[in-house]
Write a structure and sequence with these properties.
This protein has 171 residues and is mainly alpha-helical. It has 7 helices and 2 strands. β1 (13-19) and β2 form a beta hairpin.
Length: 171
């Protein structure tokens, strides 16, 4: 659920304004929306009503010019933003830092917490934890925190062993 841009309540009114040719989404609770509509839409952002879309777009634009294209398929982040599709599965990891703000803006989180097919439920939480641990280990190595990386390596090995034992041999 989106939060009101003026207070901490849950936003129940979603207003899209066109300012200087750009669509700006404003999320407000019922009482703030009533006040907002009575006083009229502000001509500037001095009221603190900065849009999530504007914030995410600004962050993305600031980063996009520095990004090299994917080495596997050659797609650039600008091309992804323009067409809304990636060129290969590697793009998700290549553009991960740029996708984080977009996913948080669209889904309000970066971790799936909804329904999952029953056939995938066995070991799914462990698989997710394994991916998280590997990412943390990669970050620890980049930051030269080798003790942390070693602890994560051990935890990864134990979890991989547990997963192998629970799934049994594969043919």
């Amino acid at each position: 659920m989106k939060k009101c841009r003026r207070c901490t309540k849950t936003a129940s009114i979603h207003i899209t304004e066109i300012r200087e040719g750009k669509a700006i989404a404003v999320h407000l609770c019922e009482s703030c929306a009533r006040e907002y509509l009575e006083k009229g839409a502000p001509a500037d952002s001095s009221t603190g009503l900065e849009s999530d879309d504007v914030t995410a777009a600004t962050k993305t634009q600031a980063v996009k010019s520095d990004l090299p294209p994917c080495r596997h398929c050659g797609i650039s982040f600008e091309e992804f933003r323009e067409h809304g599709r990636f060129g290969c599965p590697h793009d998700y990891t290549h553009f991960q830092k740029e996708l984080q703000p977009l996913l948080e803006n669209i889904h309000e989180d970066t971790q799936h917490i909804g329904k999952q097919p029953r056939r995938l439920l066995i070991g799914t939480a462990d698989q997710t934890r394994l991916v998280q641990l590997r990412s943390l280990q990669r970050d620890a190595i980049e930051e030269e925190e080798y003790e942390t990386a070693a602890q994560l390596r051990d935890e990864i090995a134990a979890l991989e062993l547990q997963l192998r034992q629970s799934t049994g041999p594969r043919n």
